[in-house]
């Protein structure tokens, strides 16, 4: 099927420039019904995301233009001052590619909608198969709901599309995170974890976050880059319990800070990450870890602090949001107020990033 159109219509409306007749040739793709559905769904998802982002960006731009900083910038004649005012106004209203990207994340992961549809589906299933449930609404053993109404089919299709979209989004995020880790090094050490057992403790959120999938993506990427991922058993190392001084402190999972009598105070995962670096052949080399601690401590501290007070400009390290498992920042004296923090500036950005990457590895502890 070919369709063509020339620009004679355009000529009538504007006679500014002579147009040579041009043709648009449309060749339909040969696709199956299923492929067409997939393409349409993806195009629709892209269109909706684009429109949502455009709307949000326009809203934010309007706010920027109404702000005091913007007016000041327009009045200012000093070029540097002008730029600073504009930048401050943009930052105050989140008008940057990064903030909009973060906004896009929220749009894609629509857990509320999924939950709503799941409940709807459940109601429909019950209404369509009343003989499978007793008077209290409990499932009668041995009876399987088999009847589906047209509306239930529709709900299921809609749900499937949301699941698919969520899975695709998760895969993208996993890939991004793996790339960020890979940028810091291709030899990765991590604890051998039983991801299946996680499901018992953390339930559905493991299904949504899929740590095992992330791990396999990371392994594949590291290996294809000539590096490797080394897993060591937690049985002998128990990194979250031990200290440099040799003492063992058994901690609950809710205790996120490692604080020892010997003076070591560090976020638990960062500290485990540091210790993981000094694991060789499945055993922690304490002397090795002790030797390098003086140099590593300020870096880890900076990483910990920056997780709380990200530097005003740019992205907050390699991670967008702070995992809730991170615990509150504590200064060396043990107080947890933010105000008493010394202003650490990251002198060695790479090393800090490395530290937080290890934290990410051991965040799975
Ligand atoms: Zn200690």
Topology:
Layout: H1 8-13, H2 33-66, H3 68-75, H4 79-92, H5 97-108, H6 111-128, H7 150-182, E1 187-191, H8 195-202, H9 204-209, H10 211-224, E2 228-232, H11 234-237, E3 257-259, E4 265-267, H12 268-277, E5 279-280, E6 283-284, H13 286-308, H14 349-362
The protein binds zinc ion.
Zinc ion binds next to loops.
Estimate the mean pLDDT confidence.
79
Tell me the fraction of residues in β-strands, as a range.
5-15%
Radius of gyration, taken over Cα atoms and rounded to an integer in Å: 28 Å
Unique bound compounds: zinc ion
Distance between the termini: 59 Å
Side-by-side strand order of the widest sheet? 1-2
Structural class: mainly alpha
Helix fraction bin: 55-70%
Figure out the total of helices.
14
Query: Which sequence of SSEs, written as H and E, runs from N to C?
Result: HHHHHHHEHHHEHEEHEEHH
